[in-house]
Hints:
The complex is a heterodimer. Chain A is built from 15 helices and two strands. By secondary structure, chain A is mainly alpha-helical. The longest helix of chain A has 41 residues, at 106-146. Chain A is flat. Chain B folds into three domains: 5-48; 52-162, no CATH class; 166-383, MetI-like (MetI-like fold, Orthogonal Bundle), CATH 1.10.3720. A three-stranded antiparallel β-sheet of chain B has the order 2-1-3. In chain B, helix 8 runs parallel beside helix 11 (241-265). The radius of gyration of chain B is 29 Å and the shape is extended. The two termini of chain B are 55 Å apart. Chains A and B meet through helix 4, helix 7, helix 8, helix 9 and helix 10 of A and helix 1, helix 8, helix 9, helix 10 and helix 11 of B.
Amino acid sequence: MDTGQTILSIAAGLSLLAMIAFWVARKQALATESGGVRMHSRPGQYGWYAALMAILPGLAVGAIATFMHLFNLAAPAQGDIVIAGLLTAAAGAWYGMRSISPALRARNIIDRAIRWFLLAAALVSIATTIGIVLSVLFESIRFFQQISIWEFLTGTNWSPTADFSVGEATGESRSKFGALPLFTGTLVIATIAMLVALPIGLLSAIYMAEYAPPKIRAVAKPVLEVLAGIPTVVYGFFAALTVSPLVIEVGQAMGLNPSFTNALAPGLVMGIMIVPFISSLTDDVLNSVPDKLRQGSYALGMTRAETVKNVVIPSAAPGIVAAFLLGVSRALGETMIVTMAAGQSPNMSWNPLEGMTTITVQIAATLTGDLAFDTPATQSAFALGLMLFIITLTFNYISSVMIRRMRARYV
Amino acid sequence: MEFDSAFEARMKKRYRAERRFKGYCITGLATALVFLLVFFTDIIVKALPALQQAEVRITYVYNEESADFPSAGIQEDYYELVSRGWLRIVPKRMRDNPELMGTTEQTWALATDGVDQYLKGQYNKLSEEEQALADRMVAAGNLRLAFNTGFFTTGDSKLPEMAGLWASLVGSIYVMILTFLFAFPLGVMTAVYLEEFAPENKLTQLIEVNINNLAAVPSIIFGLLGLAVFINFFGVPRSTVLAGGLTMGIMTLPLIIISARAALRAVPDSIRQGALAMGASRWQMVKDHVLPLAMPGVLTGTIIGMAVAIGETAPLLIIGMVAYIPNAPETFTDAATVLPAQIYTWAGEPERSYVSRTALGIMVLLTAMITMNATAVYLRNRFTRRW
């Protein structure tokens, strides 16, 4: 029996048992009620109660078996698991059907069970975060046991897969894990992106919040949202095949010599991608600035532009900073555009016309294709992932604090 | 009333500044809109050529020899025109239809990529004789550009003229089904718990903060999670629909929770109080009253979340779904590729003719996403109640 069959047979057996328990218990309750006895809950609820008593112990056995299996504590035969699970379920069902009585508060028990069930669902998101942290952390720790954090953070030579066979033979790896060029590459591209996204996003938001007649606003806002909906792989295609050649052409016309995988093209396109994040958040923030501030400013004879610059924007500043930080966080974590347009070779340079690579590109590059796990190369990807996670988490956290501050100011 | 000239000049200056500022704002918005226009025009112009594919009219002789060497079945002149991919499937067709043996058939065969590109006026590697031959055949009506049905019915191929979208389309549908099955129930249950059941305590706060954070985690991190947890820990096979669906589900979950919570919050408290006053238990109140009323909003949010997931590529890179997988999956444990992954693979191919196929693939993906979003908007406008 393979895992799939085991799961299927347990599921099938459990639902059958549950159905029988439901049906018998309900019938029992109906019979009691027709005898003129008042019961605490509806007959169907007694049915559900009995079904629950069958399913829960069965599932518990399955869960314990899965746990033992995953953590290599014991490996009971799959057939035994099925039998054990169904036997406990049957015992549970029998107990459930036996305990049906007018005094049993089946409805309350179901409500409580459902509450726990829903809480368990809600805990999946916590488990996800824990899963993310643990999976990146474990591999990173193993990585940092071999390569010092200091070398990782400040080394300037990144070649994780360089000549591994030679390294194994001599007992010394020739791979180099200095991630500094990746950090600078990420920084350069994110900076270009924010130089595009911040002015366009901010100005669009100001226009929509302060100037635009409702009709234009009703059209422009959803159209800007379209930018946010375009898949990043599509942006990547556009950056690599349309913008990059354009950059090269313009660069050459200006007497420069841009690389084919220049950082400017992905930066520009990424900037456009981030515009809607900044504009929609800024738009919300500007709208939450109370109108009385504007009216006060107008009453003192200020023009609209002066009001925006001297009253509205300073009042909305924390929100705008939050929007900016969220945008930066997007830019740092964006993968497809840079993978497709920015190239793979690490290059520590501030010149946006040169090719450079980013954290995300290297994570994707080391983990794509056939990979041998447990090599420093793949572990380095997790170490990079850890860096990325920490950085974006920090930015998101500061941004949420800023938004809270903004809300507290005006609500 | 008389103002001094300094005041007049200052006013003029301030009004000029006002107009300038408004101009900047309009320019900002216009830049974004112009980009969108350029972007879509560019993709469409690039995609249009792929709608058509060159076909050659040939007389194919089915005999013993062509069963072994498919190119023996056509005239020698046409060797360079007919796609090797088309010829390669001839023996299989003959095995499947034994009655073909000994017959001769006039048929439209797929032309090579070079001929295709030549007819479309694009860069190609045809020699001058081949170009002349192609010209003569076009004049005789034996070479044409026909609608590219193959693109929508076949899987990926290393021959550009054979490469199609079908396998990845099926893959996307499979992955989306799993994503939905995983994320929708979990998302709705979490939202119901947080909105209707959760007590005000630290755990609830933790869950809330956590969900908002997850929604902002870069998608590639979810790929790392998928690789470490689903593939390495739980032993889900790499590149499969199952691995992709679970990873996408985990990624979509926070989006669905956030929108489902908003939908639940929009149901007025009077409904809840009415149900409780009639003696319903909390769960009865939720399942019979609050949830049905919130359903249109929940579904809208789910569809929008799925539209995000269908375009996502980065996590799938990590779990191995971006690979050469020419066959459509049949079960959830088959290796599969998805639309954006196919687009990514094609975008990296060196042959120029993949460009228009990539762009057409993008059009298909965008159409799917626009349809989903339009459905969501329709649902919202049609079924959401204003209280």
